[in-house]
Structures are given as C-alpha cells and as structure tokens.
Amino acid sequence: MAEIRTAQPKRDAGRGSERELADPRLQQLLAGLTAVRDGDFGTRLPQVGDELMDEIAAVFNGMVDQLSVFTSEVTRVATEVGTEGKLGGQARVPGVSGTWADLTDSVNAMAGNLTAQVRDIAQVATAVAKGDLSQKITVDVQGEILELKETINTMVDQLSSFADEVTRVAREVGTEGILGGQAEVPGVSGTWKNLTTSVNFMAGNLTDQVRNIAQVTTAVARGDLSQKIMVDARGEILELKNTINTMVDQLSSFADEVTRVAREVGTDGRLGGQAQVPGVGGTWRALTDSVNFMAGNLTDQVRSIASVATAVADGDLSQKITVDARGEILELKNTINTMVDQLSAFADEVTRVAREVGTEGRLGGQADVKGVSGTWKALTESVNVMAANLTDQVRSIAEVTTAVAKGDLSQKIRVDARGEILELKETINTMVDQLSAFADEVTRVAREVGTHGNLGGQANVRGVSGTWKDLTDNVNVMASNLTSQVRSIAQVASSVAQGDLSKKITVEAKGEVAALADTINTMVDTLGAFADEVTRVAREVGTEGILGGQARVPNVAGTWKDLTDNVNSMANNLTNQVRNIAQVTTAVADGDLTKKIDVDARGEILELKTTINTMVDTLGSFAAEVTRVAREVGSEGRLGGQAEVEGVSGTWKRLTENVNELAGNLTRQVRAIAEVASAVATGDLTRSISVEAQGEVAELKDNINSMVRSLRETTHANQEQDWLKTNLARIAGLMQGHRDLATVAELVLDELVPLVNAQQGTFFLASGQNGSTRLRLIASYGAHSTEELRTEVELGQTLIGQAARTRRPIIVDKTPPGYVRISSSLGEAPPVNLVVLPILFEDRTLGVIELASFERFTQAQRDLLDQLGETIGVNVNTIVASSRTDSLLEESQRLAAELRVQQEELQRSNAELAEKAALLARQNRDIEVKNTEIEQARREIEERAEQLALASKYKSEFLANMSHELRTPLNSLLILAKLLAQNPSRNLTAKQVEYAEVIHSAGSDLLQMINDILDLSKVEAGRMDIHPEPFALNQLLDYVEATFQPLTAEKGLTFAVTADQDVPRELVTDQQRLRQVLRNLLSNAVKFTDHGRVELRVRMAREEELPPGTSGPVVAFAVTDTGIGIAKENLSAIFAAFQQADGTTSRRYGGTGLGLSISNEVVYRLGGEIRAESELGEGSTFTLFLPLGRAESVPAPAAAETEQAVPERENSRETHGKRQVLVVEAAGTGLLSLLASSAAADLADTHGTVTVATVSTAEQATNVLLSRPHHCVVLDLSLPEGGAFAVLDALADHPDLRSVPVLAHPSRKLTPEQEALVQTRAAMQPLELLPSLDELRERIALHLSADQPDDVIPLTQPRPLPSPTRPGSDRSVHEPLRGHKVLIVEDDPRNVFALRGALESYGLDVRHAVNGRKGIDTLLAEDDIELVLMDVMMPEMDGYAATAAIREIPRFADMPIIAVTAKAMQGDREKALASGASDYLTKPVDAQELLDCLRRWLPEVRA
C-alpha cells in the first residue's frame, strides 16, 4: 500500500501560527483525494507529527479503507451474481453508516431481489425441462422481468394442456389399447397447433410392422439370425426394415464367416482362414478383423432343444430333451422338460373337461392340474371358470327352450352372460317375446300375406300340437314371401361383415322391409366412405410410411364418427418410437454401438426397446472385449490376453470363445517366431521355429526358418572370405621389406603351413642357367633333414617340376604308405593330402611350394593357396628384380673404381688434365649418388605401384561382386514388395499394403545408396570421365526449374532460378556432371528446408572469390535456402564421405552423406570449387565456382541449334558419323527436348557426342532431316492445329524420310479419333506411341545406341487395320501380355520366384532354367518360347556365353534376349549387348520397367 511521503519541514518557533510549510502537506492531501476520485484506494496519508494533519490523515485513511472494503464487497457480490452465477450473496461492509450503509443495503436488496426472481424463473424452467408442468412463477416482479414471467407462465399453461392431451392420447393408444383418441388443446396456435395436429394421426397398421421388427430384433438379440422382416412397408418404416434386414444379413454373413473360420481353426486345424464379410464397416469391420474364427460345438444340444420345441409348437408333448448338457444349457434343458410335463398335464385335464362338457354333455366338470403355477395355473382356473359359467348358462337356456318347446312362452333366461352367449340369451328372450306377440298377430299377418298373393313353402312338422301347430300353419304361409327378401338382406349384411362394401340390396320390398333395405344401403355407402378414408390413412401411415395423415369422413355421426376419430390416433406417438428404434438399429448396422433407444414406450414397444438396448449392451461389451484383445495382440504386442464378456450366450458366447482361442493360438505362434527372431538379432543362427502351424503362418514359419538357414550359410561364407582376405593381406605384409629370398621363403612357410593345417612344406625357387630352368630348394618346414630332400629338380621332373611346367596346382589325395612321412619326437605317420602350388608372375613360374597334411584341404584353404600363389609371385619377382638391380649397382661401382684408378694414372701422366679429371670424378660421384637415389625411388615406386595395382584389382573385384551380391537379393525384394503393394488378389489389408510400400521404398533407398557408393569409387579411382561440350545456359536452367519446381511446391516453398545479365548464354563444360552437382545441392536445400524459399542464382564470380590458381572468368552457381543451417564447426566435415552436419541430421532427414563428397570430387575434376556458408537455424548458401571454358577449344555439336537457325543449315551431310535426334514440339526447348538431352547425355560416355535439335513445324523438320541423317524423331502429338499429323504427312510423302523412326508422345490426352488416326499411321510407317515419359526416354536411348537407325526393332509391326464393324477391337501399343511364353535363365531361386510371380500375375507362361546350358536345352525342347530373360553370372555357362551360343543357332538369331544382371559397373551394358543381347536391365529390376521392356520385344499376342 503506497504512502505519500515528502521531507518533513522544520517548524519556526517564532512563527507557528502562520504555518509557512503547509503547502506540501496540502499537496499530499490533494494527491490523495485525486487518487480516491480516480478510483485508486491504495493511497494512504502518512503521520507527520502535526495534530491537525495527522487527524486529517486518520480520517482520510479510514474513509479510503471503508471505500476499499465497500468496493471489494460490491465487486465480489457483482462477480458472484453477474459473472459466476452464484446467487444469494450479500455485501458485508462493517462500520459504515449514512450513504455508504444505504448503498450497501441497496446493493444487497438488488442482489436479493434478483436472486429470488432468477431462482423462481430457474426453478420453473428446470421443472419444464424435466417435464414438470405444474409449477409457475409466483415471485413479484416488474418491468421486463414481469413480461418474462407472464410469457413463461403462458408457455407452461399451453405446454401443460398440450402434454395432458398428448399423454391422454398416448396412454389410450399405447397403454390401454383404446384407439380413436384425439388430442384437443384449445386456444393454441402456431407450433403448438401444428404439434397438436401432428399428434392426431394414426398408427394402427404399424402394429404388424413393429411386432415383426420386434420379433426379428429379439431373435438377433438371442443370437438367431435366421429371421427377417417380411411385412410390407414404405418410407421411414421401409428404411428401418431395410436397415434391420441389412443388419441381420451382415450379422448373418459375419456369423457365417466367423463360424467357418472357427471351424477351420478350432476343429479342422486349418489356420489362415479369413472371415470375409463384404460391405461392413465400423465395429463390424473391426470385429471381423479381430475375430475371424468360431468354434460352435453346441450343435447336438441346440438341435435336441429345437426338436423338442418344434414338437411342442406342433402339439406333440411326448418328446423330451435327452442330450447331455451342463451349465446354462442344462438349466434350459430342465426348464423345457418341466414345461413339457406341465403342458402335457394341462392338456390332459383340459381335454377331459372339454370331452365331458362338449362331447359327453356332462356339465359341471372341473380341470385339476397338480403342481402348476403362474400362467399354467391361471389357464387352469380360467378353464374351470369357463366350464362353470358354461354349465349355468347352458342349463338356463335348456330350461327356457324346453318350456318353449312345450308351448310355454312365459319363461325367460335370467342367468348372467356376455359375448355370444349374451347375444344368444337376448335372442332367445326376444324370440319368446316375439313368439308371444306373433301368436296373436300371426293370423292377421298370414291373411294379409295370403291376400296379397305372397305364397310360400309349407312347413310339415309332425307330432306338434297346440299353439305350435297353429303357428306352424301360419308361419308356413309367411315364410315363402320373406325368403327372397331376407336372403338378399343377409347377402349384403354378410358382405359388409366380410369387408365387401360393393354390394347393395336390390330385391323388391315394401313397407318396413323396403325401409330396412334403404337403411342398409345407406349404411353400406357410409361404410364405404369410412373404409376409403381409413384405408387411405392406413396406406399412407402403415404402407407408404407417410406419417401425419388424417381420415376425413363427412356426414357421419355416432359410432362411425367415433370410429373415424379413433382412426386418427397414435401414429405420432409411434413415429418417435419407430424413428428412435431406426436410428439405433442403423447405428448398430453401421458399427456404432454408442447409441441406445431413449424414447418413452410401453407394452410391446417397451419390450422391443428393452430388447434392442440389451442387444446393443451385449454387442458393445463383446466388441469392447474383442477390440481390447485385438489391440493388445495386434497393436500393443501384448500376447496372451483373453476376452471376458459377461452374460452372453448363444452366438455371442461362441464368438467370444473363438476370439480367445484365436488369441491363444496367435500368442503361441508369435512368441515362437519372436523367440527365433530375437535369437537371430543377437547373432544366434542355430535356432529355428518348431511351433505347430498351418496355412500362411506355416509359410511364415518356413520362410523364417529358410531365412535363418540362408543367413547361417551366408555368414559362414562371409567368414571364409574374411579369413581368406585377412590372411592374404597378412602374408603379403610379412613379405614386405625383405630382400633375401630364403628369408622370405622361410617366413612364408612358417606362416602358411600351420595356417592351412598342414604339417610339412617345402619352397623351391626357379633359376635359369644355360637356357634351362631348374627348381632349387631354398626353405622347408617340418622336414627330417635337408639331406633327405631333393634340393634341385628339373622342369617337368616329379610333381614339383610338372606343376612348374604346367603352371597349375596339383593335389594328391590319399598318398600311399611310405611315400613320405611326417614325424615328431613322439612318432611319425604318412600324410593324407599333398598340394603342389606353382608361384607365378605374369604367366611365368618363379617357384613351387609343396605342402603335406594329415587332413584334406578345405575349399577355403585351396582358395587361399590359389590366390596366395600370385601374391607370393609378385613379391618374389620384386625381390629378384631388386637383386638384379643390386648386382648392376655393384658392377657400376666396380667400373667407377677402375675409372678412378685410370684417372689417377692419367693425372700422374698428364698434369694438364688433373683439374678436369677431378671435376669428372666429382661429377661421377654425383651421378652415382643420383643413380642410387633414383634407383631407390624407382624401387619404392614399383613396390607402391604393384601394391596399388593389387589393391585396385581387389577393390574393383570387390565392388563388382558386392554390387552383384547386393543387387541380386534386392531384385527379388523390390519385385515382390511391388507385387504385394499392388495387391492384385485384394486379400491384403490396407496396413499390409502399407508395409509392402515401406519395404519397396526402403529397398529403393538402399539401391540409391549402392549407386552413390559406386559413383564414389569411380571418383576415388580416377575413372570418372569428363566430356566438356558447349551448351545453352537456358537449357540447364529450364531443366533445373522443371525438376525442382514440383518438389518445392509440394513442401510449400518458394523456388526461384535467376541468371545475371553478364553471364554468358553458352557454357563449355560437362553438362551432365554439372547437372549432377546442381541436383545434389538443390535436393539438399529442399530436403533441409521446411518453410521459406530455395533459390539458384547464376552470376559471374568477383575477383576476390576466384579459386586459387584460377585465371579467366568464373561462373558462380549459388544455391541459397532458409533451412536448418549448419554450425560453423561442422562446415569442414560435410564434404567428407559418409559425413553429415551431425548425427541428428541423418536420423531426422536420412541420407548417407555421400552426395556432397561426390559433388566436391566432380567439381574438382571440372576445375572448380564448392564453398559453403551457413548460419545454424538461418539457412545455407552453397556456391559452385566453375571456370568458363572456350567454345572454340571443344568441337561444337552440329545439330544443337534452336529452330530459328535451322534454315541457315548447310545442305551437306558431313556429319554422317554423329548420332543425332530431332525433337518436334511447340516450345523451343520444352519437356521433350530436356528428356532427349538427358538420354543423350547418358550415352555420351559410351557413344560419344549426341546432337539434339529442336524444331516446331513440319517444314523445319523436313529441312533438318534432309540435311543430315537422324537416328529418330521425337514428336509431340499435342502440337496445335494438327501440327503433329502434318509432320507425319511430310515424312510419309518424302521417299527419303519414310523409314525415319518416329517416337510419338502425347502431352495431353488424345481423343478416340486421334488414337484411331495414330494407329492407322503406325500401320503404315515406323511410328511408336509412347504415353510414358520413362518409356520414351528408354526408346530414345535405344535408338541412339544403335549403329544404324534401322537396327532397332519397333514396338509394334505394321498390321492390317481393324474391322470397321468392331470399333472396340482397336489395340494400343501396350498389347496385353497374356498368352506369351517367356524363359527365365537364372540360378538364384529368389529372383526366379520374384520374376515368375510378377510375370504370371500378368498372364504370361513362364519357363525356368538354372544356367545357360539348361536354358539352351529348354529352347531347343520348346518351340513356342518367345523371349528369354538371361542372367549374366551363373555357374557352368554364364549369360554372355549362353547368349552367344543361342545367336549361333539360326532359328534363334532374332529371338529377343534381355540381359538381366546385378553387375552395374561401367562397360557391363556394352558387354551384354556385344554378346548378342537385345536389351539390358540391371537388378533390382523395376516391375514397370520390366513390363515396358517385354512390351517392346514380345511379338503380337496370338488370337
């Protein structure tokens, strides 16, 4: 709390009354009052020691405290009431009075009034929201709150009246079954009027529908999926019917599939079955995926129960359930058997009473059924009541009728009766009355009838007398007349009773009979109108599903009016119920189990509601448990989980048990697989999967076991290779630096003999004397003594001399006893195996090594000996050469000494020459020193050159072998992953397809890394060739923009390519290598930039930027990005191989770290330099400095001009020897020109400079083609105004240009007419339609690699045009592959499996041979093979030899042979084509590339 403080002024004792220092205090008071006025209650006045000012300060501070308390309390109450909604709060400000007390009371009064009003309104609104319409707002209010009070009270009155009427109608219709009720709500209008009107409609016809729906859903809830809704319906009821039927079908299909899978898994033991339920989604799809099994073994129990239940339903109570059962099934069995016993006893008693009363006429009998209760007891009592009542009624009727029969008409029936008995009672009593009156009047009536001439039949009743005799005579007179009238009336009445309102009374009648006829006819008309209206409403509501209809029958009253009113009821109530039921069942059918029926219902609708809600709960519990188990097993990897669904039975219980069984089986199998996979991951390759499995799991088990075996074999082979190379290098290192052959020989034997597990060895050195070569022993290992060994051997003598002469190793197995013996201090024994190894250098024998061993030499040991012979030969030759050099040096020194002696003699004899002799001596000494140094340097250089040559040889062989070994498994991996990702049989889930795509993507990345490593090896070996040539700068920039614009757009980056005005429009360098460097720099920029921009700027380098040692102009290519940047300390490391800025970069962005290393080496060979500038988090700039070459120093391509220069071409054809391609497209250097340039650049290393010319019109194309020959023409079929077909016409019209191959590509989709026209052209001239840019590039490269333009076989041969009557028979250049037979010559079964699977999926017939010789045999045995896929590296006969041998067979001279190999080193393609291959594919083979290649080379499909 702030205080206002100033320096306290001193008082002047002499002038205390004047208070000269009061102004500062007043200023404090004024500042405090100002703060209070501005609402700042935190200011306090300090005590200054002045009585008056301290009192003022105390009063001021007290006032501020009360104001602060008052403000905080009012704020609190306002916040609670107005913001937080907490009513009832009161402000409590202690110690205030006057205005502040009044203000506090006013605030509290306002809060209290507002609290009472709001609480009263809220109480009434809450009651209305809860359905209580008995409360009203009674609090006193004024103003707008009074209007709100009156409005809400009026609304409550109307809602109450409306609710009472709706409740009454709903109760009558839905609860009491009284139809016809109408809701009458007086004084309502608007929505309430509409609601009241909507309530008054009809749902009688919905009873059958609802009962049928309830029956089906009850059956579904009980697991019975055999029933469906058969009742006719329309509208929403039809949707509900279709929804429930669809749900039943889906559930039935789901149950069927689960039953089938469970039977296969649980009973037949056939794993791998999948439940396929089409058209389901949501929970059902998840359940289908999760469950997929079922093991119903309750068949005998259910069939026995069904048999007994069916017998009971058919009235057969003699059968009982006899099948063994336990648990709930046993309870059900006992319940049904007890029910059958009670039904049998009840039926016996009822039959007895019925027989006594109805057949034997013995009244008074009672049914006595022991031990029954509930419904059966009530039925028994009802039968007894019925029998007692019937006894009393029949006896009374019999008494009266007996009296009547005796002519006594004074008696009447007095017994109580209802229904038809009541009608009979009244009829008989009426009959007695009428007979009594009839007896008096019958004579008169008979006279009138007889007088009027209405005569009839005569009654002939024997044995009567008295009144009945007279009545009989008189009645027989009247009966004849009334017959026809009564029959007609009866016929109409019967029709009305049967619902036929089309008939009327037409018989002639008079008097009351005529009036009766008119009355009945009027009644029929009224009933007809009533029936039409009722039928209309019933049809709208019950049949068409149109709710809200009202029956309107004019001019009716009484019963008909009541019936009409009764019809207009109940449907609105049922609408909400049915719609709610439909909503829930639709959600269940869609797999949504979160919804329930919450509409109010009673009676059968309530039972239906309860049944469906119970079903949803059961399904929800079942789905939750199954989903939990599926999630634990399938997603979280927690095996062993079991689904626990309480209170389910029937189908759902069996499904739960099946889920648990599936989870258990899967747990055992996955754990076994995981155990083996973990062992393999830790390097243990001895384990295998032994768990029992079938189907796809068994295949997975076999595949993993096969993989482990393959890894074990590969690991063993790699270990042998490592052992071989390590020991080769170690022995070669031992021999370095030694000049004595004997020492070297001893070192070699000491190291080599124990290394190959031999026990004895000798080393012979070749020497030549007098023109003959002899082998001299210079070292031995483990021999008895040198005297026992032959020290010299002639060439060709013994095995030593023979091996030296033939220069081939000699191996002797199982040496005979006594041949040679290996001994030690403990004993001796003959060896088992001898190896005689020649030491060779440049096909010249330098020596022989012989080894003896107790054991056979392994293959790895033999390989070591074979390769070691060359290594030892190189070193021996070096030592021999060094020895010769030493001899020559000694001879030179001896001659120099003699020369010095002669010089001394000449000096003594000739003093004049002394000075010159001394000078000559010094020169000779200098020469000797120089010679010595030169000789030493020469020896060192020779040694280094030999070592480098050997290392280079090993490295080249290693890269070639590793390329082959890596690409071979990658081939099958990528092909099979691509096939799985395509999912041709549609039996994989979306997740499995995604796994396959990830495998294919990872394999492609691995292939790219292999290519990068091969490029790096070329750079390090100095084998990367540079081919400078002039090219247009715009062409390079267009290529960059076309390549990287889509990539930057996909990431939302801004991309710009700019070039300064002073940069030359034409550069001279290796364009393809420059593109490679720019691609790498821009790819890195895009990869490491998430937002912002990427820019390539081409400018001239400033003088201070020039690389050291560079003269002349230099172009700078600056690639700038706003990406993650590089730390200063890491800039120097990024250009090293396999290095990136830091470890997190590779983890986040991937990559091998080879790109910048390769780019740096390439730029170095181009004479330039790459510099990097970067700020961490700000971005980077990589600048490529490239010296400008001189165009005149490099031969310029003859046909690289643009279309504007074409008319100025020289007409001579002096460039006949160069390879040229012509591009015809609208843009000067468009997409097709870039594509052709890219293909041409790839061939520059092997075929020299390739010229690409671009034109845009038919005339220009003709001029260029006539000026010099071209290998092919690349044509854009989408040229405007039919320009493409004008080019084709120009080529076809000129005889010299008809044979020029045309590669046509549509940049836009062709119309059917254009496609037909292209097909017509292709039938008449060498035209190929290539919609794919990859295929177009491949064909351009193929045409340019041919020696002559006509050497390339076209994709499609000219053929007759299709019949005009079969427009659908046109076939594109992509002919179907089905029906062709292809031979795969491949030794790797994995590649065979992958290629066969890929080809057979497109309908090809595939044959296989394991090597070249078998392939030739297969070709000779089967005449209908159309194409051969030939691997290169195979045992016995490789692909080169096999291809050459096939070409030597005349009938296979034109057989398409595609070389497919993992060897991707420089020159491999040319070697394959030179051996006779038609085309060349590198492994891993891309599936689409393989198919395109097959389409190019396969002949047309046979009809």
Q: What's the topology here?
A:
Blueprint: E1 2-3, H1 23-37, E2 43-44, H2 51-83, H3 99-129, H4 143-175, H5 190-199, H6 206-221, H7 235-267, H8 282-290, H9 299-313, H10 327-359, H11 374-405, H12 419-451, H13 466-497, H14 511-543, H15 558-567, H16 571-589, H17 603-635, H18 650-681, H19 695-735, H20 741-755, E3 760-769, E4 772-781, E5 792-794, H21 798-806, E6 810-813, E7 822-823, E8 828-829, E9 833-841, E10 844-853, H22 859-909, H23 914-982, H24 990-1021, E11 1029-1032, H25 1033-1051, E12 1054-1059, E13 1066-1069, H26 1071-1087, E14 1093-1100, E15 1114-1121, H27 1143-1149, H28 1155-1165, E16 1169-1175, E17 1179-1187, E18 1219-1224, H29 1231-1242, H30 1244-1247, E19 1250-1255, H31 1258-1267, E20 1272-1276, H32 1283-1293, E21 1302-1305, H33 1312-1322, E22 1327-1329, H34 1333-1345, E23 1381-1385, H35 1389-1400, E24 1405-1409, H36 1412-1421, E25 1427-1431, H37 1439-1448, E26 1457-1461, H38 1468-1474, E27 1479-1482, H39 1487-1497
Parallel strand pairs: 1-2, 12-14, 18-19, 18-20, 20-21, 21-22, 23-24, 23-25, 25-26, 26-27
Antiparallel strand pairs: 3-4, 3-10, 4-5, 6-9, 7-8, 9-10, 11-13, 14-15, 15-17, 16-17
Helix pairs in contact: 1-2, 2-3, 3-4, 6-7, 6-17, 7-16, 7-18, 8-17, 9-10, 10-11, 11-12, 12-13, 13-14, 16-17, 17-18, 18-19, 19-20, 19-22, 20-22, 22-23, 23-24, 23-35, 24-28, 25-26, 26-28, 29-34, 31-32, 36-37
CATH topology of the domain at 740-909: Beta-Lactamase
Looking at the structure, what is the overall shape?
elongated
Low-confidence stretches are 1-22, 293-298, 1143-1148, 1190-1216, 1357-1375
Radius of gyration: 56 Å
Mean pLDDT: 76
Tally of DSSP helical segments:
39
What is the number of beta strands? 27
What's the CATH architecture name of the domain at 740-909?
Answer: 2-Layer Sandwich
CATH superfamily of the domain at 740-909: GAF domain
**Class inferred from helices and paired strands:** alpha/beta
Order of strands, main sheet, comes to: 5-4-3-10-9-6
Task: Give the CA-CA distance, first to last residue.
Answer: 104 Å
Strand content: 5-15%
In CATH, what is the class of the domain at 740-909? Alpha Beta
Main sheet specs = 6 strands, antiparallel
What is the helix fraction of residues, given as a range? Answer: 55-70%
